[in-house]
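User: My collaborator sent over this chain with a note saying "see what the structure looks like." That's all I know about it. Can you take a look?
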Amino acid sequence: MMTTQKKKVFLFFLILSIGFIAGTLIAQFKDNSEKNNTKMDKTVPLYWVAPMDANYKRNKPGLSPMGMDLVPVYDNAIVESNAGPGVVKISPIVINNLGVRTVPVILKPLVQTLNVFGTVKYNENRLVHIHPRVEGWIETLHVSASGDPIKKGDPLYELYSPELVNAQQEFISEQNSNQGNLSAASEIRLRALNISKEFIKKLKYTKKIHQTITFYAPQNGVIDHLNIREGFFVKPDTTLMSVGNLDKVWIEAEIFEKQVRYVKLNQTVTFTMDYFPAKEWTGKIDYIYPELNVENRTLRIRIELENSNYLLQPNMYGNININVGNDQPRLQVPNHTVIRTENKNRVVVALDNGEFKSIEVKTGIVGHTYTEIITGLSEHEQVVEKGVFLLDSESSKESDFKRMSHPLELPSATVNGLIKRIDLKNRKLFIAREEIEKWNRDKADILFSVDKHISLKSLKLGEHINFTFVIKNGDFIIKKINNHPIKKDH
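Assistant: Without extra context I'll predict from the sequence alone. Here is the result:
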């Protein structure tokens, strides 16, 4: 039998042994856990960056100021290669995680389309201005407003003129005298005063003088620039109104100076409008104006379109697509693979073994989807089309082709647009802007803030402007309106 003292000693050593064993197991478990955590941390992103701006970093997933998904960056994902300055190497796993994708440089004819705004105008060859041939008063007006449809022969207005009364009296007197030469001369005078043949025939038959004479529409069309009302005193130099024919209309557009060399007479164009999204008109450039606009450096062109259904009305606007394609084969890459800066353009070239490098290229014609490469690349080389901005940022840290702009420079673009709404109180402009080629951005309606040094007083709804804007903290800020002088608000 074990004594009480021996039992106490045995229990003490038993508890001490259990504690030692438990401590050892806990220590081993903790060490293994830390090792496992360290191993797993290598698969956890260090941070997330914007695909188009590697300086925009966040510690969690989200959206960039451009509305694009942020890209994860892992530990040792991108390292400098020994192949030369500016060359970076990425592991295949990370390439897959980043979604890096490349496309080949191709050699083929480059199809280019110019997209510009166009405005519907009257065909001035079919626009008739109405003037009186004598002084007088408008007794009755048969049309009420500009835009009224009219048919050839419809009454326009009735005029009282002492000169017309005297001409009628002279005509009747010569008729009664039976002197043929004088009668013919008086009839010619009436016709010179724009008196209709029907009225002269009636006057010859009834020999009754009319105090007012009705004048009629010379052609089908619509009334434009109605400048008179009943009771107006008018003279031969008074433009009473105009009658515009809408069977054929003109579309006028402005193209930038650098695009002039691509535009020629008889080029085929298509015209579309938001009013009729399913409708498309086809025509040709029938006139290129000979003078450049010195203020915005643009040149006007004119297209004549058939308008038998009268859907096109003067002062409507729409989009003109001009096909200026060239059959000559050209080296080219997709537009979105080219990183455009103020003075230089770059692409990221995929080398062997997961290596990439940002290089300078000289670009030529910019088509709808492809850009011509004049120097810097050769056919079949691979350029990055997805993940290009992140790789370019890493490559440019060591590359001999440094960025021309400061790393912290805000993204900016210069573009044309149409003012659709003006908010003077909050200094906002709602603008339908054109596409931005260097960002591969389609046309869009955007709410812009306006920098405080720009005056908004001279801007008008429906006005076309050329402006420069920056993106800051997700906001689109207009820094310069090139069509207007920059003034301070008073």
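A starting point for your reply to your collaborator: The chain has four domains: 97-112+327-396, 115-123+246-323, 124-244, 412-481.
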